[in-house]
Automatic annotation (TrEMBL):
NCBIfam families: 2A0109 (TIGR00887). SUPFAM superfamilies: MFS general substrate transporter. One of its GO terms (molecular function) is phosphate transmembrane transporter activity. One of its GO terms (cellular component) is membrane. It comes from Triticum aestivum (Wheat). This is H(+)/Pi cotransporter. The keyword Transmembrane applies. It is found in: Membrane. The chain crosses the membrane at residues 20-45, 65-88, 100-119, 164-190, 213-232, 346-364, 370-391, 403-427, 439-460, 480-498. It is a multi-pass membrane protein.
Length: 525
């Protein structure tokens, strides 16, 4: 039997866009800014780490991270993120969104600082402690995914909910860009303060003892904006949907939202049982009947998206080196190579990554989630094939511009597409008491894809005849790009299962106003 939506939730759904919406975007968004900085800044400094800790004077080439170490350094934070998404997603539904929101930020700040203070000067000690702290850094980052998405979803009105959740996620783009800017500034400052010859002239002097400070500063710098938002996270009231629908305290929910909305909301005398509605749990028969297909859609599309997205993001530097956009390592000193890597990635972020996020913000509540995701996967498939088919031509000198343009467009449509929508949809379509958990499961499945991308692409893209030192033969970069195109196409097919949530209340989408015996209308397109 259908039930009426609570007055406090009706008030939130029809509330005009006002200051508290933007405040919530900034508070939640700065967490994502830090998340992106922390997860992706490591890709900027791995070549520098290889030079500092693994250069062998007897060899005629700069050092690089051994295959197992490179995989661990790039992938360990993703493993922590996966665990954090599952744990904090579940905890957010058990203890409340706000109750654990501050803890994830503290964990991120402390572990980010500790990563930069990794112990010792020997490779084994530094890499071991770096991986340890980055795992727990990822654990905190993982908690931010379900909590930030759920909080913003439950605070927003139904007309502009997609815009505000997308704006929170779009801060990831600024975090990636900020990482490249910090790297450019720090590496430039040290290059000018401590000039060094190229590797081929003097291998030892090309690194310089100061380089060890550079990567540590870069890794730690992202904690500053996140730490500044801690106070405001703690001042946010618990979301009305958690307080009313899960805790069963509609009086408190009404009081909190009256203050937030700065308007009087009529109070209802609703008992906890009425407020919380159904009691069926995750993976119960009733859950599978109502949301089983939804969970399959959100998990599969996020998984397939992250295989491609993280493969491209974490190994941009390797791709740029192989196409000749960055000069051979031995012609540069350590900090010049770092500077050039950061400059190349900044260009991709500025021209492709960041605009894609904000196109989603602008159009998510006009076009809708379903069509943006479908379009994004389609264009990613097309542009990846456009790179892979003429790959041998595009990597020749004089043709790099075409490669970079096509590569940048894949990032644009990843972010004006499934990278944004896979984050938004799980925060809208599941019932309040399982919303954070289901978002965490969806995000964790995505991170499983990211781990496969981070570990698999590095090995798969190795040359079939002459792999890099320490690696076995792979299928080659061109074939690896074909595999990513196929992954994007599968994402397109599974996107057909994703429901459209534009303009609907969370209770309508999650069927929380529908009794077990009622006919359940489909929410899809």
């Amino acid at each position: 039997m259908a039930t009426e939506q609570l007055n406090v939730l009706k008030a939130l759904d029809v509330a005009k866009t006002q200051l508290y919406h933007f405040k919530a975007v900034v508070i939640a968004g700065m967490g994502f800014f830090t998340d992106a900085y922390d997860l992706f800044c490591i890709a900027l400094v791995t070549k520098l780490l290889g030079r500092i800790y693994y250069t062998d004077p007897a060899l005629n080439e700069p050092g690089h991270l051994p295959a197992n170490v490179s995989a661990a350094v790039n992938g360990v934070a993703l493993c922590g993120t996966l665990a954090g998404q599952l744990f904090f997603g579940w905890l957010g539904d058990k203890l409340g969104r706000k109750s654990v929101y501050g803890f994830t930020l503290i964990l991120m700040v402390l572990c980010s600082i500790a990563s930069g203070l990794s112990f010792g000067h020997e490779a084994k000690g530094v890499m071991g402690t770096l991986c340890f702290f980055r795992f727990w850094l990822g654990f905190g980052v993982g908690g931010d995914y379900p909590l930030s998405a759920t909080i913003m979803s439950e605070y927003a009105n139904k007309k502009t909910r997609g815009t505000f959740i997308a704006a929170v996620f779009a801060m990831q783009g600024f975090g990636i860009l900020f990482g490249t800017i910090v790297t450019i500034i720090v590496s430039s400052a040290f290059r000018h303060a401590f000039p060094a010859p190229p590797f081929y002239i003097d291998a030892a002097a090309s690194i310089g003892p100061e380089a060890d400070y550079v990567w540590r500063i870069i890794v730690m710098f992202g904690t500053i904006p996140a730490a500044l938002t801690y106070y405001w996270r703690m001042k946010m009231p618990e979301t009305a949907r958690y307080t009313a629908l899960i805790a069963g305290n509609t009086k408190q929910a009404t009081s909190d939202m009256s203050k937030v909305l700065n308007k009087e909301i009529s109070e209802e005398n609703v008992q906890g049982e009425r407020a919380t509605g159904d009691t069926w749990g995750l993976f119960s028969r009733q859950f599978m009947k109502r949301h089983g297909v939804h969970l399959l859609a959100t998990t599969s599309t996020w998984f397939l998206l992250d295989v491609a997205f993280y493969s491209q993001n974490l190994f941009q530097k390797d791709i740029f080196t192989k196409i000749g956009w960055i000069p051979p390592a031995k012609t540069m000193n350590a900090l010049e190579e770092l500077y050039r890597i950061a400059r190349a990635q900044a260009l991709i972020a500025l021209c492709g990554t960041v605009p894609g996020y904000w196109f989603t913000v602008a159009f998510i509540d006009i076009i809708g989630r379903f069509w943006i995701q479908l379009m994004g996967f389609t264009m990613m498939t097309i542009f990846m094939l456009a790179i892979a088919i003429p790959y041998d031509y595009l990597v020749k000198p004089g043709h790099h511009t075409g490669f970079v343009v096509l590569y940048g467009l894949t990032f644009f449509f990843a972010n004006f597409g499934p990278n944004s929508t896979t984050f938004i949809v799980p925060a809208e379509i599941f019932p309040a008491r399982l919303r954070s958990t289901c978002h965490g499961i969806s995000a964790a499945t995505g991170k499983a894809g990211a781990i496969i991308g981070a570990f698999g692409f590095l090995y798969a893209s190795q040359d079939q005849k002459k792999p890099e030192t320490g690696y076995s033969r792979g299928i080659g970069m061109r074939n690896a790009l074909f595999v990513l195109a196929g992954t994007n196409f599968l994402g397109l097919l599974f996107s057909l299962l994703v429901p459209e949530s534009k303009g609907k209340s969370l209770e309508e989408l999650s069927k929380e106003n529908v009794g077990d015996d009622d006919t359940i209308a489909p929410t899809g397109v």
